[in-house]
Amino acid sequence: MTSSPPGRLRILCVHGYRQNGSAFRERTGALRKALKKHAELVYITAPLRVTDPALQQQPAGGSQAVEPDSQTEDPRGWWFSNAQERSFHAGESCQSSLGLEESLEAVRRVVREQGPFDGILGFSQGAALVAMICALQGQAGDAQGPFSFRFAVLIAGFRSVCEEHARFYTTPVSMPTLHVFGETDRVIPDHMSRELVSGFQNPQVLTHTGGHFVPAAAPQKKVYCQFLDTFISK
């Protein structure tokens, strides 16, 4: 079990599709710097290898934009919407997915071995996974189950349209959350992130004018820090 110094939170960070923990850490350097007085960010890598680098995550709206980490070495994912092709598209409807339970178990293992964590942060497909974890924690109750996060930050998140994932969206999630998304995101259009927000009770929402990335400029830093301040023991 690991702990941070008093007054500093520990946050588990969940990368997007075709990323991995190391690449996500590198690409969130500005965020780590912005939050260094508030939190330690710990990065996890998904267990599923994206075996064909030519298969990009396609934008849900059908445009040609791709997720900016499409060239990541050793690309990983949290589940595949097309089990046969082992590929993923956020807007792809499917009856069943491949790999989600393996990924949830990977998160449980990290929580057991490297926890406790105060919060969890996810980007893109990782944010969608975080939303599922929030739902599982709420369904299990505060005193049960492997997850005991106090808050979540979901960046460019979305609600999975896979039929077997509908169980995650049956009850409003009460965990405190901050939802962040770009108004010009062509990979996960903002209406998909807003749809995810609707499944949470009293969510805090931060929008920015950019696209598919983790924003960490001064306006976003202020909101992140104000949100985290509510969970830091004075």
> Could you give the order of strands across the largest sheet?
2-1-5-6-7-8
Number of helices: 6
Radius of gyration: 16 Å
How would you characterize the largest beta sheet? 6 strands, parallel
Mean pLDDT: 89
Shape: globular
Low-confidence stretches: 61-70
Estimate the helix proportion, in percent.
Answer: 25-40%
Order of helices and strands: EHHEEEHEHEEHEH
Number of E-state strands: 8
Strand proportion: 15-25%
Enzyme class: hydrolase
EC number: 3.1.1.1
Pfam families: FSH1
Family: Belongs to the LovG family.
Describe the protein's architecture and organization.
With 234 residues, the protein is α/β, with parallel strands linked by helices. Helix content is 28%, strand content 16%. It has 6 helices and 8 strands; from the N terminus they run βααβββαβαββαβα. The strands form 2 sheets. It has a 6-stranded parallel β-sheet with strand order 2-1-5-6-7-8, with helices on both faces. Strands 3-4 form a two-stranded antiparallel ribbon. It starts with 8 loop residues before the first strand and ends in a 5-residue tail after the last helix. The model is unreliable at 61-70 (pLDDT under 50). It is an enzyme of class 3 (hydrolase). Belongs to the LovG family.
Question: What is the compact description of this entry?
Answer:
With 234 residues, this protein is α/β, with parallel strands linked by helices. It has helices at 21-27, 29-35, 100-114, 125-140, 190-197, 218-229; strands at 9-14, 39-44, 48-49, 76-77, 119-123, 151-155, 177-182, 204-208.
